[in-house]
Each structure stands twice: as structure tokens, then as C-alpha cells.
Amino acid sequence: MRFLPQKVEDRREFFRATARYALLVLVSAAASLVARTQTAEGQRCVNRGICSGCGVFAGCGLPQALSAKRAQEKG
After folding, report:
1. What is d(CA 41, CA 52) in angstroms, rounded to the nearest whole number?
2. What is the rounded CA–CA span in Å between residue 66 and residue 58?
3. pLDDT tens sequence across 11-45
């Protein structure tokens, strides 16, 4: 029974390390998703690609917004 505290500490450290690495994976995944939504100009869509009625449409340089602006100019 003398070795029981050592095993408990090892188990606790295992769970701490597992939680630490799981948190690292979650933060990395979130950072990857954020980086993926940004464009080369540093802009990102705040309205899920729906340009009509968007508050930042006038100053937006994303491809969807540029296409919508051209469509509005033509017709």
C-alpha cells in the first residue's frame, strides 16, 4: 500500500496533461478556423456571404461584395 500515493499522483498528472493537450488542440483548431475566414486583405465576412443589407457592404472588398456591387451598377 505504500506505492498507492505515487500511482494516484501519476494518474492525476496524466489527467492534467491530457486536459492541457486537449485545450491546446481546441485553441489551435479555433485559431485555424479564424485564420481560414480571413482574406488576403485582412477582411472577413461578417454576414456569411449575404451582401444585401450588410452594414459594411459599402467598404467591403471581398469577392462576393465586389460582384454584388458590379451587379448593382449594371442593373
Report:
1. 21
2. 10
3. 888 899 999 999 999 999 988 877 665 554 567 77
Three-class DSSP category at 44: strand
Q: pTM score, two decimals?
A: 0.43
56: pLDDT strictly greater than 90? no
- Every domain of the chain and the residues it spans: 1-37, 41-75
- Three cell numbers at 3? 506505492
Contacts of residue 63, Cβ cutoff 8 Å, sequence gap at least 6: none
In 7-69, at which residue ranges do the beta strands (DSSP E only) sit?
none
- Structural contact between residues 51 and 60, judged by C-beta atoms closer than 8 angstroms: yes
Q: Name 38's bridge partners.
A: 44
